[in-house]
Amino acid sequence: MSVNPLVCVKRVVDSSGEVVLTEDGQGVDGRYAGFTMSAHEECAVELAVQVAAAGNGSATVMTLGDADAVEQLRAALAVGCTAATHVVADSQAFGPADVAREIAAVVRDHEAAGTPHELVLLGNDAADSGDFQVGIRLAYELGWPVVNGVSTVSVADGEVTASGAGADGHETYRLPLPAVVTILEGGVEPRYPTVPGRMKAKKARVEEREPGVAPTGASRLRLVLPPPTPSSVEILGEGPSAAPAVVDLFERLGVLAR
Amino acid sequence: MAEVPATADVVVIGAGIVGNSLVHHLTRLGWKNVVQIDKGALPNPGGSTGHASNFIFTVDHSREITDITLDSVAQYKEMGVFTESGGFEIARTEERMEELRRRMSSAKAWGIEAELVSPEFVKEKVPFIEEDQFIGAFWTPGVGVVDSLRAGTIMRERALATGELTVVPTVEVTGLDTEDGPHGTRRITRVRTTGGDIEAKTVVIAAGVWSPKLGDMAGISIPLTPAVHQMISVGPCPQLAEKEGEISFPIVRDMDTFCYERQHGADMEVGSYAHRAILHEPEDIPSIEQAKLSPTEMPFTEDDFDPQLEQAYELMPELLGAEGAEIRYAINGLLSLTCDGNPILGESEVAGLWTAAAVWIKEGPGVGRAVAEWMTHGHSEIDLHHSDIARFHTHQKRREHTRLRTTESFIKTYGIIHPAEQYESDRDQRLSPMHDSQAKLGAVFFETAGWERPFWYESNAGLLEEYGDAVMPREHEWDSRWWSPIINAEHLRMREAAAVIDLSAFCIFDIEGPEALDVVQGTCVAQCDVAVGKVIYTPVLDAKGGFRSDLTVMRLGEDHFRVVTGGAHGMADRAWFSGHLPEAGTTTLTDLTDDVSTIGIWGPRARDIVASLTSDDVSDAGFGFLSCREISVGGITVLASRISYVGELGWELYVPMSQAADLWEALLEAGAPHGAVPAGIGVYGTTGRIEKGYRAYGAELDGERSIVEAGMQRPKVKAADFVGKEAYLAQRDADPQTVLCTLTVDDHTSASGVKRYMLGGEPILTRDGGSLTDGHGHHPYVTSAGSAPSLGKHVLLAYLPPEQATIGNELAVSYMEELYPVTVGSVDATPLLDPTNDRIR
Amino acid sequence: MILVLVEVSLTGEAVENSLEAITFARDLAAAGGGIPIDAVVVGVPGDDVVKALAEHGVRRVHALTGPAYDAYSGAAWAAGLMAVREKTGSVVVMASGTPRGMEVLAHVGARTALPMAANVVSFSSLSPFTVTRQVVGGQAREEMQLSQRPALFTIAGHAVQAAPADAPGTGELVEETPDVADADLVARVVSSEEPEPDLSGSLKSARVVVGAGRGAGSADGFGEILELADLLDASVGVSRVVTSLGWRPHHEQVGQTGSRISPDLYIPCGISGAIQHWAGCSSAKNILAINTDPDAPMVTKATHAVIGDLHEVLPAINEEIRRRRG
Fold first, then answer.
1. Residue C83's domain spans which residues?
2. CATH code of the domain covering residue C298
3. Residue B809 has what pLDDT?
4. Of A206-220, B409-423, B666-680, the least confident
5. What positions does the domain FAD dependent oxidoreductase central occupy (chain B) (predicted)?
6. Which stretches of A18-158 are assigned E, i.e. beta strand?
7. What is this model's ipTM?
8. What does pTM read for this prediction?
9. Within a 10 A sphere around the Cβ of B654, how many other Cβ atoms?
10. Binding site, annotated residues of C for FAD
């Protein structure tokens, strides 16, 4: 039996720089920083590709997002996913339960179409809305077990083994397929796309579909930026001339000895 | 927060390649108390220098850009930051091969080693290229890469070593204060920054893509637009990784797919100019904090790049598809584009506020030196008039214009651009009152300074039959692109009867006031203290004796002069004269360009036609050559000036815009029985003048040319002082290093049997193809080329080494890599047609 | 009533984040006119835990016991928590924003089909109940309404400082043994062990860490940084952007999703200090930020700072160290 994971990604604003909010306060403005998927999801894609390869199956990527979100699908296709599903919708209007419902619909429809997924991988949390719950809600929609916040995933003999750092140390789960697993980055190095991979991704067909149900929303009133915190920093100087003061500090802290 | 000094002799805003070069050259030239600021941190403050691909191809069709580039390369080499890699520009099509042959012309003209080579030659140097993807290449062994950040640091440190430079990074300019000067002018007084205010009388904006924002602070337009250049980096490629150092393979410019492939260590950088123009407003560039990488490394938009990726892959599949080679870095890098592709340099309309913007890495150090010279001496060694900020007309200062033109031109970055190619966007900015009538006559409009000028009239197509082969038809599509034999037919009709020419694009300004005579005397070479009603044709020089302009001046009153100059360079001329108005005086300069239209009428029947419309005396005795006065033509009062740029009897008629259309119709109507036709700028600007050997500013004349070398010296030099007089006197006493000559093409037949016609820019060689060098070390090239229908010849103008400047000397012109025999016909301003100027009388 | 899920560490103490959650709950309880606060713990807590919870204002401590709780399962914990909530009729169910707290509350949300708010830092209104929570990795905040009951949310780490209550609770211990369905035990931890020492191990335990961010400029820009690390016998830690650009290996990443470090001295060079990164380095005892921007978050949060470009400052520091060492 082959293993054919579905990996779910979300187009989010790259938030490694200063965050800029949209004028309506409902989202993050991506015009400066650009868009990406979260690091968790990059790792989920990598794991999906690895699991599919090890299981003689193929990895499918899906997203719920506006038309531009196809960029994230193609990014996943460029690194080894072979099929893509795009639920074309404004992701801001969808709360975690809405998203879970739409993913479940895709899983069911793919199964009905004869291309079932035994494993669904998601990021531990979205880099923008940070809800920490879509994977779990999805599991309940599907009636599947779910493992949350792991960094490695492997499949053998109809069982998934997942592990990662937990409260009690390095924790391992083993459970039967089908299952939902949410991924925390760090267990695997996501690959960059290759030129041939990127070209293949460009040509891959993307299944487009409408959301099945009107969203109930995210109960969001608005986004705001946190106030700056007061500073008690001691400025040791400016430029190279600060070096003696810096090394004085090293001596005071006792980190200079050798 | 960093603090800035309270005063400076000069503030340089920007610490990219341009600002760093400027502070180096300014301190080298003796400037004191120089302050350089940047909102970013050093050594990479986050502008376009920081993400540049840093390679330099030296051959450009523009002499100005090439010379700046060559100077930059010399400076980079001196600093030890240049690595020669060689570079190929490959051709996938025969059309591109033709362009590469034209590139060979430019290479020879500018004296740069280059060669057309086979795909096998390329494959030998770039083993991972697929040689069946292209048919040939242009090889420039001197191409290389530079470390522009390191160069910037070196130059800044050299400036710091003089003790005259203070560098303050991480302060942002918040305002540029100006104060009112005389004649409605303004001057810069202060730079406001987040680190305090700096009082300064001289400020340079060298802030790259942010320059327009800074310009706005002082109320000046720096019309550039930040535009995206996409680049990805693919690696590690094993073929590259095994070589030491940053670059060991030549750079490949895949011109037909608008891509380049440039090795960077183990990675291959693939850059593209093929995508849609992605323009940004300077205000939309993120702050340093908002940016993911740097403010000018915008998020990559993959869709725009994908087609190029495919073409690049076709060209280098083994390299780009190598095991382990991944796309590790991809940016939409911002760079600066302008409406005409040239930098924006020089002093703005705010006195003391200079710009050095829209400059690429290949030009940075050269621009720094040239602008520093300009700021120090009032002129630079390399002529910069194509880059002068003063060149922009009002309509060109709009951001919309820049946006539209750069959108159109971006895709031409690696395009094949005909020398006469016209823009399609943002046309019809300035229409003469005769425009509708001209359109009905089938005028084909070319644009100059925003003016739509008829280049020829399809209504004259019937003349083609009349003149037969005398219109010198051109067989080859390239030679006849943006050209029509109708131009030559109009020309022949002018010489035979008369032609009416719309010259509304002239830039016209009046200088009036008690010091008016002093102003024109002090700026013009010719004697301007002439009788009222006299017309003066004069060169205008800079202090080193190079041309600033050539133009006509009419003395309309004791204290009233009217200056008439070409539209293209008119704004720079106006700025030059404005700059020479006495500060304390009451003399003013008034621009009449939009109020006064000019219509020319020339030809043997011109006097008859004008006489039929006026009761004034227009006989030679009553209206002599080089005189002007108001007359009534068809009931319209006009200022008539008897002068000619086409070598025929006739007048320029200055008429209020509101009455120009009526005058135009009256002249055409009265002229028709005499055989007169409307004629376009093709006649006025090329055929008419070239037969007469008349020089054109921007072609034969520029800041690097002298009156003596241009063969335009008069027997005497006026007693009054004028800018450049001292230099001019010295030039007259010295032997010329180069001599402007007129040549005719003896045989146009190419190897394939097709007759070819040069368009300008081609190198002049010995008959057997040997290169020539003048006393300046320059190689002769065609400054102007055009039909001389009345001579039945194709005429070329070129500066030749003095020993070659002998009438009858047999040389050759290289066109598309074939030699055509030419013969020197004139070695001074003596016209080939009507050398005694009888026709003008 | 407010029900708070409390986690107990391997060493048998109530974790700090749980005490923070209870402290937060007290404010909420007070605003609601003195609502009682109960805690739920898994397993029988030690006396110290019960005492600590009482000191923080907990009325009753519900201990979930039985074989279903021997190994961690988010679903099982959620089942137990819900049983207590039904028994007590709580209008609020809270947890700390730890991985387990998040997971268990998400399960509760899915089981009840109610919204769950993650990483709440404050509340602004009781009716409708409006909370503010961290989003975008802590760089922005979202105001969100939780109008249904019970309101489900987790408290972001360090949103409040844990503090004993002025009026301690009684801390009555109640053992609970609700049934857990087999399906809720499918996904449970089968083994947990001390993490193998990985490459970032030295980073996590290093006494001095030299950090580098975007300011390094390129993959080639780490020379001075590595040199300083060498001189101080320090580890190198980098920001997310550095690893995502491929400049440095992933195991050097410090942050919410990388290593969490707690050195005596952390020297972030050219790191602006996004919250993800701060989450990984905030436990450092001293922070010396080297940055061109005096207003960068990393500078304002640091104990010491040098304003300047790392490529200019570090060579001078390295030189000074060598000079003093002779």
1. 2-185
2. 3.40.50.1220
3. 98
4. B409-423
5. 377-432
6. 35-36, 60-65, 83-88, 119-123, 146-150, 152-156
7. 0.92
8. 0.87
9. 24
10. 214, 239-240, 253-257, 270-277, 291
